[in-house]
Specification:
three-stranded parallel β-sheet, alpha/beta, TIM Barrel, four-stranded parallel β-sheet
């Protein structure tokens, strides 16, 4: 690695800590966010990334399934949720979900990523039946399903404790939880952008209880809206503290806010500069997280490639069908092939390694041949519930 040249003197003591392998403080995190020397911040993050992972960059073959976009929350940050009778509202019948999943298996998916709206009429049992049916039909596929926000909602409508809700999900076949809904933990921010969701404290509590039951999860942070640098650092350090205690987080994903079609559409989109800084600062502060993901759907493949030199060691997966961020104005493709992901990684000077959800390498030579991906038209079926 080339020698570090620092133009911002405030970074020098932070760089010394990083090179000694010492934990960074809240003050260090704020300084990293405010430093104009983005290249030095990126160099330090890349140092940590290469020390952990060398040139390896992970990706997976996955499929996103969003069972419904009907949602009671009406968060200002969201362009995905709809009222039940609003134009564009949908709820998939279970058989349609199974069709999408079985198509994913034919495309070689090793993971289904499932999140959706907080539907006012669907019972908890609908989601448990969905998981049971998927596990029967696709027993080898990892089911990463339901954010902490959804878990909190399920517990409320089913009149169960969080632990009981998580246990029922696990018994039905949920293998791990995604990291969405974390947004920014600080109550000031949540009141402004997502006041109908679980609190930041409750999100962390649900994650803790999931980890205690043996369910790993991811974690996220939504940046680029009304939060301050201090609130971003507070968010990251709360995740770091919980990870110290449970070791249950697999991957951290910084998520760029897409304002189009939301109640916050007047806010400018984060720039590529913002994206790279958030990747880098996350890698430096989250010293107990093994993996930092550059989610190409939100960043664009081009920025995601650069992020592989700013601390990220994962690009996510093939995705196939992504609704949440595309409803909010994302202009990236909803599908990238396994071959293209490998090409993106190699072009960035890294070594692609296909993984499963828990970062075990996938050996395709030991799996049945995968037919070419197809995209059959599927008509949404609205349930009368």
């Amino acid at each position: 690695m080339a020698e570090l040249l620092i133009t911002d003197q405030r970074l020098k003591p932070i760089a010394a800590k990083v090179l000694r392998g010492e934990r960074l403080s809240q003050e260090d995190g704020v300084a990293l966010y405010r430093s104009p020397d983005i290249l030095a911040v990126g160099w330090l993050a890349n140092h940590v990334r290469e020390k952990r992972h060398g040139d390896v960059t992970y990706f997976n073959v996955n499929r996103h399934i969003n069972p419904t976009n009907v949602c009671v929350a009406h968060c200002k940050l969201c362009a995905f949720g709809r009222d039940p009778n609003a134009p564009g509202a949908y709820t998939f019948a279970l058989e349609e979900i199974y069709q999408r999943a079985e198509q994913g298996v034919r495309e070689g998916a090793t993971e289904f990523h499932m999140v959706g709206g907080l539907h006012p009429d669907l019972p908890f049992e609908y989601f448990l039946d969905m998981i049971r049916g998927l596990k029967r039909r696709c027993p080898t596929v990892h089911l990463k399903a339901f954010t902490m926000v959804e878990v909190g909602y399920f517990a409320r409508i089913a009149k169960l404790s969080i632990k009981e809700t998580l246990q029922k999900m696990k018994d039905a076949g949920v293998d791990s939880l995604p990291g969405g809904g974390a947004e920014i933990f600080h109550p000031r921010v949540r009141k402004l952008i997502c006041d109908h969701k679980v609190s930041g404290q409750m999100w962390l509590s649900i994650a803790r209880q999931a980890h205690e039951l043996g369910l790993h999860s991811n974690a996220t942070m939504l940046y680029g809206h009304v939060e301050t640098e201090e609130e971003r650092v507070d968010h990251l350090l709360k995740l770091r503290e919980l990870q110290d205690q449970t070791h249950g987080f697999v991957t951290f994903i910084p998520l760029a806010f897409h304002p189009d079609n939301t109640a916050l559409s007047h806010i400018p989109k984060p720039t590529g500069y913002d994206d790279l800084r958030n990747i880098a600062v996350s890698r430096l502060l989250l010293d107990n997280f093994a993996h930092i993901k550059a989610y190409w759907i939100m960043l664009s493949p081009a920025i995601a490639q650069i992020a592989l030199r700013f601390g990220a060691n994962d690009l996510d997966g093939t995705v196939v069908e992504e609704k949440i961020y595309h409803d909010a104005g994302a202009v990236t493709s909803e599908f990238t092939s396994r071959a293209d992901l490998e090409r993106f990684i190699r072009a960035a000077g890294r070594v692609p390694v296909e993984r499963d959800t828990l970062y075990n390498p996938v050996d395709r030579s030991k799996m049945p041949p995968i037919p070419p991906p197809t995209r059959p038209d599927l008509v949404s079926l609205t349930l009368n519930v």
